[in-house]
Amino acid sequence: MKSVTGSIRQNILAGIVVLVPFGLTIFILFKLGRWIINWVSAAPARFIKPIEALPEPLFQIATFSIGLIGTIIIVLIIGTIARNFIGKKMVVFFEGLISRIPLARTVYIATKQIIETLFFAAGMKNLKRVAMFEYPRKGIHSIGFITGTLEPGEHHNATDKKLYSIFLPTTPNPTSGYYIMVPEEDVTELNISVEDAFRLIVSAGLATNNFDDSN
Asked: How confident is the model at residue 214 (pLDDT cuts 50, 70, 90)?
């Protein structure tokens, strides 16, 4: 009975760990998106509104479409700027300003980490192999993702052994982590999916009982 109760409790905790960040992100994106669209469409709406012959439903569709297209263009422009040298400096500068405001810093960092985690989860589809190895010292095991193979003397492998390139994510924010190279004989590939490994890392082990037995 205790094992059943413990399993249910762990499943509930794992569900909260996975559901709350995703739910919060969707809520924030929805609110933010609606605010941006309304803000962008406010000016065009002043020009469209005087047209008496324009029905209200058509007016709403027109303003929403203008706001949506305008938002996409603004996001594209900001993204383009943020990717160049000057843009990166500006991002660092404004992040520095935000980091000095206690409440704003907490909200900004948490939101950024959640969004980065979502995009990272989408990118995880390109990974196919999950591995276990001893890290950071002998006797302690970690889970990571094999990103490539390096033959002896190939590229930056200056050893005489075959190495696996491995990304070792951190918990609970897997968007940060370490790139390590581990000898092939020290790596054990796990028969679990990348999605299960990802949930395991994000939930700090609470999602263990959610694995599909067919894996």
From this structure: very low
- Going from the C-alpha of 91 to that of each of 63, 85, 194, the distances in angstroms are 30, 10, 32
Q: What is the 3-state secondary structure (H, E, C) of 162-193?
A: CEEEEEEECCCCCCCEEEEEEEHHHCEEECCC
The string of DSSP codes covering 15-66 is: HHHHHHHHHHHHHHHHHHHHHHHHHHHHHHHHHHTT-TTS-HHHHHHHHHHH
Distance of alpha carbon 110 from its chain centroid, rounded?
11
Name the pTM for this structure. 0.48
Taking the C-alpha atoms of 175, 168, 179 and 85 in order, what is their torsion angle to the nearest 10 degrees?
0
pLDDT above 70: residue 45: no
The residue-averaged pLDDT of 80-84 equals: 76
Q: Is 139 helix (H, G, I), strand (E, B) or coil?
A: coil
